[in-house]
Amino acid sequence: MMMKNGENKNKISYTLLRVVWKLFEADRKSRFYGTDKELFEAEIHMIKAIKDNEGIHVTGLAQLLGVTKGAVSQIIMKLQKKGMIIKETDPNNLSRLVLKLTSTGEIAYSNHEKLHQAFDDLVNDTLKDASDENVEFLGAFLSSLENNIDYFGDIE
């Protein structure tokens, strides 16, 4: 018996919610990223932001991430204690400190990038037999969903 289109769409909706939940749970896990220090999601993303924006300072990091300077400072202190980052005087502004990764921070960054590459490989492998049209449709579907998801929380 063939499934009705509406039932199939509901099935897709529930499958998508399960996938999103699994991704959320996987991303929330603390990991060591090849070091002896446990890193939490906010910490590894701070490491990534520092590496991807070489020479950034606390204020710039807060603006980039859309969080308060206090929130950035708290995570920075934890990362300093874990030996992941250092603060150095900005040669262009001696009253400001810039953030840099230590060699341990570089290892964590590199292993975090490998984790993302493994996810990219999983997606590419899953789509290896998909037609160009199906890949294009899926991309458009996910982009549309991403663009409209903010309104989802407004439902009462």
From TrEMBL:
Residues 9-147 form the HTH marR-type domain. Gene3D superfamilies: Winged helix-like DNA-binding domain superfamily/Winged helix DNA-binding domain. It holds the Pfam family MarR_2. InterPro entries: ArsR-like_HTH, HTH_MarR-typ, Metal_resp_HTH_trans_reg, WH-like_DNA-bd_sf, WH_DNA-bd_sf. The keyword Lipid biosynthesis does not apply. Keywords: DNA-binding, Transcription, Transcription regulation. The keyword Heme does not apply. It comes from the Bacteria. PANTHER family: HTH-TYPE TRANSCRIPTIONAL REGULATOR PCHR. This is MarR family transcriptional regulator. It comes from Fusibacter paucivorans.
